[in-house]
Amino acid sequence: MAQKEPVPINFVHQNAILCETIRKEQKHQKLHKDYRVNPFKKINVLAPKPNTKAEDDAQEDDQYINIFKKAREVPTEKYDYPQTESQAYGWFTTPLIDSDRSDIRLHHPTNNERSY
Predict the structure, then answer these.
(1) Which of 22, 91, 108, 116 has the fewest CB atoms within 10 Å distance of its CB?
(2) Could you tell me the pTM of the whole model?
């Protein structure tokens, strides 16, 4: 049986493949420079270490605070109408008829007294 000789590496072709790969990556790469904390993820606030000085230089980011408050709103405050069929149940919570406790047709109190 004849053994196959290893094919020598063509460095010109390897370099062309590498250049093409890099060109494709740079074409579709999007560089993000503005990093923020995800407002939809629960944040565990930890107290600082007791032996360090407290830094009061922290500035509040108004845009982040607004996004955070918007993420914590319930759907009835975010939207005017339900977005899904599941939200339609219980969307309108105001009663259709005012409750009148003297009207026996609508008010059926339970009697908790024991009768012997």
Answers:
(1) 116
(2) 0.36
The three-point CA angle 31-34-38 to 5° equals 110
What is the spatial distance between Cα 66 and Cα 44, in angstroms, rounded to a whole number?
19
- What's the token pair of residue 116? 């012997």
Whole-angstrom distance, CA of residue 55 vs CA of residue 48: 10
Query: b/e map of 53-72 (b: 16 or more CB within 10 Å)?
Result: eeeeeeeeeeeeeebbeeee
The structure tokens listed for 92 are 């309108």
Nearest partner of 34 among 64, 58, 55, judged by Cα: 64
Contacts of residue 75, Cβ cutoff 8 Å, sequence gap at least 6 = 82, 83, 87
Work out the average pLDDT over 99-111: 81
Asked whether residue 1 carries a pLDDT value surpassing 70, the answer given is no
What is the DSSP code (8-state) at residue 98? -
Angle at 17 between CA 3 and CA 23, to 5 degrees: 165
